[in-house]
Amino acid sequence: MINWIPGTYCSELLTVSLFRPGMGEFKVHRVRFFNYIPSGIRCVAYNNQSNRLAVSRTDGTVEIYNLSANYFQEKFFPGHESRSTEALCWAEGQRLFSAGLNGEIIEYDLQALNIKYAVDAFGGPIWSMTASPSGSQLLVGCEDGSVKLFQITPEKIEFERNFDRQKSRILSLSWHPSGTHIAAGSIDYISVFDVKSGSAIHKMMVDRQYMGVSKRKCIVWGVAFLSDGTVISVDSAGKVQFWDSATGTLAKSHLIANADVQSIAVAEQEDSFVVGTAEGTVFHFQLVPVASSSTEKQWVRTKPFQHHTHDVRTVAHSPTALISGGTDTHLVIRPLMEKVEVKNYDAALRKITFPHRRLISCSKKRQLLLFQFAHHLELWRLGSTVATGKNGDTLPLSKNAEHLLHLKTKGPENIICSCISPCGSWIACSTASRFFLYRLTYQHDNLSLKRVSKMPAFLRSAVQILFSEDSAKLFVASNQGSLHVGQLLEGRFRHLHTFQPQSGTVEAMCLLAVSPDGDWLAASGTSAGVHVYSVKHLKVFEYSIPGKQYTEWSRTVQKQGFHHLWLQRDTPITHISFHPKRPMHILLHDAYMFCIIDKSLPLPNDKTLLYNPLPPKSESDVVRRRTAHAFKISKIYKPLLFMDLLDEGTLVAVERPLDDIIAQLPPPIKKKKFGT
Amino acid sequence: MATLEEEIALSTVVLGAGPDGLLGVEPTDKADQFLVTDSGRTVVHYKVSDQKPLGSWSVKQGQVITCPAVCSFQTGEYIVVHDNKVLRIWNNEDVNLDKVFKATLSAEVYRIHSIQGTEPVVLFKEGAVRGLEALLEEPQQKIEAVISDEEVIKWTKFFMVSKHPVLIFITEKQQQHGNYFAYVQMFNPCTLSKYTLLLGEEEKTVIKNFTASVDRKFICLMSLSSDGCIYESLIPVYPSDGEKNQKVVRSLLLKTVVSGSAQKSVALTILDQNHVAVLGPPLPASKECLSIWNIKFQTLQTSKELPQGTSGQLWYYGETLFMLHGKYLTVIPYKCEASSLAGALGKLKHSQDPGTHTIPHFVNWETSQGCEPGSQNSEQSKRILRRRKTEVSLQPEVPASTQLLLNIKKDSEKHIEIELRKFLALKQTPDFHTVVGDIVAGLLGRCKEEPSFYPRNCLMQLIQTHMLSYSLCPGLLEIALEKTDVQMLQLCLQQFPDIPESVTCTCLKIFLSIDDDSLREIDINMESVSDYNDTAQDENMEEQTGILQNGFSSEEDNCNSCDPELNQKPQDATQATTSCPVIPQRAALLNAILHSAYSEIFLLPYLKDIPAQHVTLFLQYLYFLYLKCSKNATMTLPGIHPPTLSQIMDWICLLLDANFTVVVMMPEAKRLLMNLYKFVKSQISVYSELNKIEVSFRELQKLNQEKHSRGLYSIEVLHLF
């Protein structure tokens, strides 16, 4: 997160403000009407090389998480109504492919954050895809029962050939690690293909019986081919089965669920694997010796995890963690304790529900909130009160919050980003192919909206949009790495300048910040460098201005170090802002807390209490002054999606309670508590 | 399936095998080593696996060995007779047979027999039998004639029948071929029974070879006649009183296994209860063959051609067949694995051949191999003490466990018990586990051989070491079942984690069938049974008040209306349910069953064998337990380690599953079934009510949450400190 500090130069300012009463006192607009429902997770794909995780959701969105950087969601590709991804995989090292029910294979451009190309496989909807162990080939399983092999070329993928066509859809695929054979899960059977000839050498029928009752069909949701020739299958009858691919016989069967087992992922060492069921349970299987000091090993179901309420549609196995996701929209990363060396917060369970990008923007002047949904925007006006109260009081509202506007986009594409200007008169938003700018006019209680026409043709798609503090300038980061600057005047948009990316890079800028005077613009791309542009002089600077150095405070922090509890937080900071009137205050928040850092106060050391939720009672002023430290933390609001200062003494906090999300999901498979 | 393995040829260079073949092949105290005596002057000690002789001894020129050398299993010494009357005893270290112990007897010796577990016995040509020790004490003692002058001993064999030695020999009247007599000699008390073998229709045939096996009551004598058929005669081991000259009929067992007109001699030996080995030409013109026949199914299992001819002699010791093939002594290992289901499941029954040396069953993987417990050598006979005192002092001290194992073989129960107590009090060595296993195996082995021997206290003590399991000593439960020792059974059920379902069920049958009076006398561990009857009255009261409190009486249960009989006697029903249907002792035993582990699939078929009365009784008891359980809020029974509710329920279900069709027909079980039905029904309704309550609670919770949640929007005051 980057942001501008108003008046960075006056670092020695105002010890006066320090002891002014009420400096830590706020009226908080607590907003829970942002009716945001994340889409369910459909696929996850783990990349061992870069320690990144690709996650696709049911609306077609693809997100990239950096597991090394505190599981930060660093990239995202917007969804599309007609593009439901059924399979996601990494190939050729860092290239990401997806395939879905529209029958297309898509490659993503991880630099420019757009779709590189889409290739129709001509086999009807694609249900499964997997990259060869060498990474040079892609295999897709289609609705029509065909298994198609594609060669990955540096620029594209090329169809190579079909394998023997099967009679029903191919729902799962797995390569043998040597690349010579593949296993394909279909309905009621598993086929083993010889890659060279493309012919099926075995067809292993899966028992339809389910608890003695013959179900109509048994869907093989997942297969995994191990190097010793074992094929592990998971199916809709709740079974995990081990097959011998050499003979085509069933070796072992585990009935683990009363419902479908929908996903499987095997560790690279093939000593453990993980399966996910429709009951929300994740089971860990490990290859353990039959007896201690015995060389004979067998697969044993070791640990069940119940972190989901709904179907676990997909699982992944990183060297140190089990990763699962499903209909309940949580991405759960469960570290394997035996693989974690240091028992710190890295060993803790992570549950990621909300996107780390910003879905909410705020007009401070008019006290408006703009909410971004997949296909529409909502504009709300905050209420007001005249009452005052003490800590914890809920004040009576003189005016309630008001839903002003519902702005629906046309077309199947999801909204990538949106922003409302600080003055509240402009709204900008963008999809993958269209850019919209609206002018809002207020007449008493009436609101009128007008789309600004005559936008320049190059403004087609934005990764990030930002208005200057005075709402006179619009900054648009396009996905080709360029930054467009436009002037807003009398309801019109005038293109001022375009900062071209440094030669050779096409890196998209996903974070933007502008200085309060509008002269400086900072942008950060996916590779974590920060570019600073002088809007007036149209030049590019790199980092600290004007002294080009870290501030004194920053150096002190570096010297003394942060409080250990602060460093142990496991959620990334999603927003930073500054107090417009009090430059010593930094406001930042993540999903579970927000914090105001008062730079004028001493930094906490490891002995002091970092988080103090209760007001100090009997302590004298002296004690209070002595124990006071720079980090003022509140954990009242969670999960916190957005928090900002509206004015000196007013905060706005947008929460999204998980219960509200769960209430809107389809009911989970009910498990009886009593009886059998 | 019977199989003959690759043959091993032992060189016979040192053997002077005459036209009649060898005098004999006899086992020694080492499993792999044998004494081979040729028809001349030489005895060779072979180690078969190494295919080489370990030693060879000859008598002086002019002397002739007349009886095959044997090895005394008690002393490890070798005994041979030359020139009919001169007995020689020597050891491995001795070089010259001339210089070894010599005893000249007063009568001619036919054979010396030596087998595991007893001293060697000497059979004289005139039918008298002497123990070696007794003979050596007075070598010149007078030997009486037992058989008539006309008779000649044709064949003889020595067995152990449940720890008692039994000698059988067959004689033939010299003048009249075809007249055979069998003599069975028992020791302590010395009895001799004579039987006349009736050959039946085949009067003209000559018996060419005999073999015999023995079970507890009968010696099964098989004879291979000159017509090529094998006949079987059963001779009782223990003589029946009365008749002096008893007759034994023989019956045809296998037809024409060898060519009837074979001029050469043929041989026969029993391999196990189902298999015999026959040596001889199967067809008149064919070469000689070694064939294995299954006598049960009358099938040829396997055969091996021996083209260089044999001497018509066949010996069989511990899975190895010996014969003279051409000039070589040929050894053919023979294996017959019973292709039983148990074998397929890896539970091959470990039956021990009484004739073989007891090797410890349990291998301790923690200590190194090779330290075999002191063999039988340590069992010193008086004579060897006399002769080799220096050697004794050189032998290492016998470990306590080995000593105990030896004691088990012969000592009295009382003595073993004292020794065992001493042993258990000792510090536990790393191989304690295996030693305990060996001890149990030893005790059980003796139990099998001596029906009167039942070291109950010892076994109980051993079980309580927690070192045993069913698979370690399957015989233990077998014996306890045989003796209906319910106390032991209870202990085993409590201690062993791996009792097969069939045995569990057999125990259950015994527990249900044993009568109350005898149960009362037995000291049974009652800790799982709290006094059921005492509390019955109080609980009855409680139940009454409970009904009033809830304002719900069982009369409202619509199930009652369908059973007028029950309605008429509600008092009776409560009576029946509140008193324990079995006495506490039986309850304790049944609880042990309830606690034991089982697999439904394997248990069900055995449960079907329980008589209906017993099923009803057990069901009544289970139902009673269930009632006791359900009177308690935690659904548990009082007492230490009581059966759990799920165990009770599972057994009720199992019993009903197995026996429903029987139980449903029984008038006395009707009320019980009705009660169970009622209970199941009420259980279902309770659960459905619980589910309803759960849903209502969830709704309440939702309402509660809504109340607590501050709505979608609020303005609050926040102070940061």
From TrEMBL, chain A:
PANTHER family noted in UniProt: U3 SMALL NUCLEOLAR RNA-ASSOCIATED PROTEIN 4 HOMOLOG
One annotated Gene Ontology cellular component of this protein: t-UTP complex
GO process annotations (BP): maturation of SSU-rRNA from tricistronic rRNA transcript (SSU-rRNA, 5.8S rRNA, LSU-rRNA)
Entries under InterPro entries matching the protein: Quinoprotein_ADH-like_sf (IPR011047), UTP4 (IPR046351), WD40/YVTN_repeat-like_dom_sf (IPR015943), WD40_rpt (IPR001680)
Stored Gene3D superfamilies: YVTN repeat-like/Quinoprotein amine dehydrogenase
Gene Ontology MF term list: RNA binding
Alphabetical list of SMART domains matching this protein: WD40 (SM00320)
Gene from which this protein is expressed: UTP4
Pfam family, one: WD40
Protein's UniProt name: UTP4 small subunit processome component
Coiled-coil ranges per UniProt: none
Automatic annotation (TrEMBL), chain B:
Pfam families: Nol11_C, NOL11_N
GO molecular function, one term: RNA binding
Signal peptide bounds: none
Protein name: Nucleolar protein 11
Keyword Acetylation: no
Compartments where found: Nucleus, Nucleolus
InterPro entries, alphabetized: NOL11, Nol11_C, NOL11_N, WD40_repeat_dom_sf
GO cellular component: t-UTP complex
Every Nucleolar protein 11 C-terminal domain range: 402-721
Keywords for the protein's UniProt record, in alphabetical order: Activator, Nucleus, rRNA processing, Transcription, Transcription regulation
Annotated Nucleolar protein 11 N-terminal domain residues: 1-335
One Gene Ontology biological process: positive regulation of transcription of nucleolar large rRNA by RNA polymerase I
